[in-house]
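Good morning,

Attaching, inline, the backbone tokens for the sequence recovery test we're adding to the shared suite. The designed sequence is right after.
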């Protein structure tokens, strides 16, 4: 049998730990969803119209979310949208297909005219610009 000194055993354990860490990071990188494809970042917040300024706790939000691709977690970053309404948006989208306009969001239980007015500056449509017009 091969006998290894304490220093050699520590070196082998260290190398194995580094390999496992590298494999784990590689797996995470390859298996996490690519959020950047679903979010558009505003380049210059200072040039944003006053009507588009964030509300309440969302003062740091600087992006528009694709309403047709966003996850429940991403949707909860919208002003006034909690996990229940976010889940309803995703369920509605799965049942009826992608939203084609802002007014289509009014079909989701819990979204009325006022809530739609508050979230409108922060959403976009996949095949549409931020106004909902092709």
């Amino acid at each position: 049998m091969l006998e290894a000194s304490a220093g050699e055993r520590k070196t082998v354990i260290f190398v194995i730990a580094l390999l496992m860490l590298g494999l784990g990071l590689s797996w995470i990188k390859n298996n996490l969803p690519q959020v950047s494809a679903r979010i558009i970042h505003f380049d210059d917040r200072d040039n944003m119209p006053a009507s588009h300024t964030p509300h309440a706790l969302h003062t740091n939000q600087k992006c528009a979310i694709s309403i047709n691709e966003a996850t429940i977690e991403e949707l909860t970053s919208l002003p006034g949208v909690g996990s229940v309404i976010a889940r309803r948006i995703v369920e509605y989208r799965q049942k009826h297909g992608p939203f084609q306009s802002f007014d289509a969001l009014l079909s989701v239980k819990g979204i009325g005219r006022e809530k739609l007015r508050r979230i409108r500056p922060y959403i976009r449509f996949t095949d549409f610009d931020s106004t909902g017009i092709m």
